[in-house]
What does this fold into?
Amino acid sequence: MDWREVVAQALAEDIGPGDITTETTVPASLRACGVFLAKAAGVLSGLDVAAECFRQLDPACDFQARLAEGDEFAPGTTLAVVTGSARALLTAERTALNFLQRLCGTATLTRAYVDRVAGTKARIVDTRKTTPGLRRLQKTAVRAGGGHNHRFALYDGVLLKDNHLALAGGVAAAVAAARAGAPHTLRVEVEVTTLPQLQEAIAAGADVALLDNMDLATLRQAVQLAAGRILLEASGGVNLDTVSAIAATGVDLISVGALTHSAPAVDISLEIEPL
Amino acid sequence: MDWREVVAQALAEDIGPGDITTETTVPASLRACGVFLAKAAGVLSGLDVAAECFRQLDPACDFQARLAEGDEFAPGTTLAVVTGSARALLTAERTALNFLQRLCGTATLTRAYVDRVAGTKARIVDTRKTTPGLRRLQKTAVRAGGGHNHRFALYDGVLLKDNHLALAGGVAAAVAAARAGAPHTLRVEVEVTTLPQLQEAIAAGADVALLDNMDLATLRQAVQLAAGRILLEASGGVNLDTVSAIAATGVDLISVGALTHSAPAVDISLEIEPL
Amino acid sequence: MDWREVVAQALAEDIGPGDITTETTVPASLRACGVFLAKAAGVLSGLDVAAECFRQLDPACDFQARLAEGDEFAPGTTLAVVTGSARALLTAERTALNFLQRLCGTATLTRAYVDRVAGTKARIVDTRKTTPGLRRLQKTAVRAGGGHNHRFALYDGVLLKDNHLALAGGVAAAVAAARAGAPHTLRVEVEVTTLPQLQEAIAAGADVALLDNMDLATLRQAVQLAAGRILLEASGGVNLDTVSAIAATGVDLISVGALTHSAPAVDISLEIEPL
Amino acid sequence: MDWREVVAQALAEDIGPGDITTETTVPASLRACGVFLAKAAGVLSGLDVAAECFRQLDPACDFQARLAEGDEFAPGTTLAVVTGSARALLTAERTALNFLQRLCGTATLTRAYVDRVAGTKARIVDTRKTTPGLRRLQKTAVRAGGGHNHRFALYDGVLLKDNHLALAGGVAAAVAAARAGAPHTLRVEVEVTTLPQLQEAIAAGADVALLDNMDLATLRQAVQLAAGRILLEASGGVNLDTVSAIAATGVDLISVGALTHSAPAVDISLEIEPL
Amino acid sequence: MDWREVVAQALAEDIGPGDITTETTVPASLRACGVFLAKAAGVLSGLDVAAECFRQLDPACDFQARLAEGDEFAPGTTLAVVTGSARALLTAERTALNFLQRLCGTATLTRAYVDRVAGTKARIVDTRKTTPGLRRLQKTAVRAGGGHNHRFALYDGVLLKDNHLALAGGVAAAVAAARAGAPHTLRVEVEVTTLPQLQEAIAAGADVALLDNMDLATLRQAVQLAAGRILLEASGGVNLDTVSAIAATGVDLISVGALTHSAPAVDISLEIEPL
Amino acid sequence: MDWREVVAQALAEDIGPGDITTETTVPASLRACGVFLAKAAGVLSGLDVAAECFRQLDPACDFQARLAEGDEFAPGTTLAVVTGSARALLTAERTALNFLQRLCGTATLTRAYVDRVAGTKARIVDTRKTTPGLRRLQKTAVRAGGGHNHRFALYDGVLLKDNHLALAGGVAAAVAAARAGAPHTLRVEVEVTTLPQLQEAIAAGADVALLDNMDLATLRQAVQLAAGRILLEASGGVNLDTVSAIAATGVDLISVGALTHSAPAVDISLEIEPL
It folds into this structure.
């Protein structure tokens, strides 16, 4: 679903047959100006989504972004200014903020992780632990924060988890089945929990290994064992305190579910003034 | 939009043209059993949503809830057991958990607030600071947690905020305009920041006053001033540390945006076994 | 559903794969002008809906309204003039008229009721007896006619009817249950058929009482009994002959299903001339 | 759009995020029985649509029709009985009645016209003056009443109206253009207002002539002139007082816009009892 | 479904959450120019569909058609030039070509049939053997090629096939039933396989006879037998080698399923250059 | 879009407001049996799609497949038998056949290619040259024929074509940009037209090279040059006469656009008998 349709659905959810308060108290002809003001520090993502909220209600409104996707901002920063129908501004306000605060939240948390692994080769990548309906927007926010995207969904990457391995008859059989059946444009990634399993994955010709909940020592051994023959993704037990050490082990990728399931919203307000 | 359609869209977002991993490694005829296991304590909400995820992929699957909406659970509790096509279980797993963990998160946080105001007359109510697309599900989770719902959206309640008051010519004019234009089935609520404004709202015949960011002393004065002539909703600066004292002032309602914008997900896993 | 989508569906219903007559006989490049002409007196509503019909087929067409929503018009009045592609005018004509004639019908009938209660405090309000799919447009027409809207739907008002009362255990229990479960932004209305029931509703703290099919004498007693403690809505047996007397009893609201289920269409034609 | 989708949209329009009254006062497990009772005489149409309203909310409900589509009924007749979830019955009641009362209205009015032309060869046919979104259901109701359908929409019939004739260069040119461009599966019908125009239409090889607003004498002359070479449709000035005489002129078809734009709703109620 | 929606669905099918290749390698601000170049001879159809593909991704793009619908072109001909966002051009390229090549294929094959029956009165008509979802576009291509359309679908023409005849009790009964139940705006066509059946169809008053798989001699006899009292459609065994002789028998219509189910795509490329 | 929705749209396209022929001539209660009969040899694909056509019109119908997806069949073979409402069978017949004949066509052509490369390691793969709206079904048919799928769409594979290379600054820069921006779950494929370009692609670390229109000698040199360091896909000039020799060069993949853009439909009929 196109992200503009996601915006349309969110507006429909909030407006339904009408914004009774605004329609009964604010004249249709009145114009106003709204200023998006950061109340906390953060990294910007989703200003285009916020703009779309207003444009769907007032196609003639003017939306001026003051910062770009991925920019960092301090408290008190003006992020954007929107001018248009006063009714449209009041009616779209909450939906625009609901998107913007959450997306900046993800970008901001991602940046924190990315900063902590600076100087290593590790990519911070997201997961499929996203909010239903908002995956594309959240994945964009991860990139705004400097992170990278893992597969978008079940269709653009092969990831053989423990259940697949069990049901398919082990690592070698599962990798072979995936290779045989999947498009050649996709890599094959396998979840492993031990070094022997990693060895097996390498032997089976997997492209990537997801190292599930390994401690630092084991991660370091995995890097040595792999010796560049397979990409290594560390997963599990990753937080802002542990991520630097994990990156220092030499893994290629570190996946962080929290980027999309637990990023606190960034406090942003919209100050509306009549024109 | 019907909540079953929300589920359908979430599945489509994740599955698209197909779950390559599962389709290439798990036989179509294989059956499996999945156990939803709580990894942390919480309050249950959304098991029917999780069930729907599996049913849309395997209409013949069997889903047995072990707890009811609103029940509290300890870590290690089995919440539900689903039996059906192994492919369906693997493919729907992530989407089901994405819903369930978030909804239990909201129910759990709500319960914490509700417990802290026990013995007072204050209702814990939610806000419109919900995740775009998930409002209905989140509001259900608030009720599961023992909270109450504020208006669902812009169409089922009149809430005159500072901007409306300014644009409509003050409290008296705004209340009059809303009364004249809104259906008689809706109450009129007015945001006030001072006691004189509250006095004005009462005089204008408003039904509810939203007391914006008032300190405890002022809240107490507001309760005295209102003397039951108007419902009072405290808003702003509410957290688990402050909510008891706020409730003790005698206000009728306490609205908490965090219930829907900042509730941490509850850790729940799905353990799948072949049959 | 957005009203523009209602228009789109109506056009799709009539056009399907194409307007064979127009496509085979009218050149694509031809332009024309159409005049909306009232053939009968009425009150205007829905000109924007008619305009949208043409705009969806010819975004560049020019639509000039000559009267405003809610204006009264005499037979022979030009309501609007549309200029654009001759094909678009011919193809959209019937759909535009189907909307306009019905919406003017509702506005016109509403005005007749409103005029008859002038000088009393009674509001003429609509009901949920609307045409499936057209509720929002019909409720707008009611306002154009000078009427007020009752609740829009099942979600923005509590109305306890006889069945709810029976199933919930009587007036007091039903009001209590609704108060406990419904958002505080909604009033609670109760249907009563006798004065003792009205007394019970007042005692239970209901906000509004729907007086079902009471005769004038009983209505007058109800007004006296209520003494301003509860809003009173008269319902049943309301027509243009009886409405004045009902209003004179002092009730606050009079609901009229006929506004949306039985308003005769206003005769309006579209005269098309080539340019 | 499938008629089941029309029902789904109508229910969504009325229910939105929920039926607050019913959900807060009626237990989810309660079952009830509802009886559709005619309060006036009429002809039945749309019972399947009413049934669908309940089935979409309670797939397990039982709906027993007591009469068949097209049957006549007297006041007091039980039309159908539905048994199922009490909540589903209460929530779907209004939507089911909104459909049923209107569709019976169209069937009943159609029957009145059909009865008045009994013994002649004239078909009573409908027009495109239908309620936006409900055309298919209304056209079914016309058939239930004993009438026939004119073209369903712009795509399944060629009807050259005065505007088409003017823009295409007259009757002969317009008929030739339509014959050349339209599928051979469609007849070509031409609107004429005078006998010379009728003569022209016959000469041009049209299949049907719409005789626009001709008086009885002219209609009789048209029938003589046509002598079976072309079908004749009388249109304009048709009402229950005039239709018999019009039919007696010998025309083949009489189109009546009122069947779908002005049929009064038939009064039908749903009596609900707990089980 | 509107053809623009068909384009939107086709783009969604190909783009989903994003064109990874283009987004990661081509700057968003880059502009480019694309030239549609015929690699083979053909007849043009669908350039507006191709244009729509680009416009949906870049509403500001400029699309210049060099030929008109129905024009013949030689290899090497520039069909159109599109200028706009380089990303939009690259992303929409395949979808635009998928439409254009197929539609030109149908137009080209139709023209070949039409050319072979020049000088006879026979119309080349299409069938319902179209590609699911693309019927309207394919039928437009048939007209671009000089062919005519048979009924669009099941709703705009009556065609009694052998199964209908068998189930309805023979030709006379079936024609009578269709006449009685179908709108008078539709002709009645009957499939016949023998001359006696044709005789029966004429006697029953059918408007068109579909002559199923008759050899040339029988076709000629059918034409003689019909003597202009019924339209004759030859069907079955029609190919480019046989169509001239079939047309020479004097039939009115020749239906060719191959126009829409077997027309080879015309080779057309899009040459993109940065600006 | 779910494939069941593709079926629903195809049925809606053909049925619209109704199958006039069947509804007026075949009783609603009549039941019938239909036999899918192959009129030519082929490979089966799409029987589940055909079944779905009938099930959407008659959920209670019985559909018995006699062969499985991918099975070869000779002329005269019964592929499936469907039993149900006679109306449903007649109305869905054409849509079911339109799907089935095309999908068997793709499966059959794919099998011919696959058979010709037997004994080599070359995979026959499809392209994005699919019919708009039918990609998923066509790609399933390719697998039924024994072929493999290339990327499904623009989002599940990186394929750097000449335009991307030019706009991104050459092979090395383009590969680096794609690696940096794309999920690590995707391989990077590069189109090359010369051996030096292939050398460059290998050096840049590409995973797959698309060898565009190379002759057999060059393909052989490419295989030698690659020496297993990169997958090789031959593309261009592939037909049933050339594919064996191309496979014999040692390439890994051979992509064939004809599988989805030019596969002739397989002749299959549905013989319907009343029960």
Q: What stands out?
A: The first helix of chain F runs from residue 3 to 15. The CA atoms of residues 141 and 216 of chain F lie 29 Å apart.
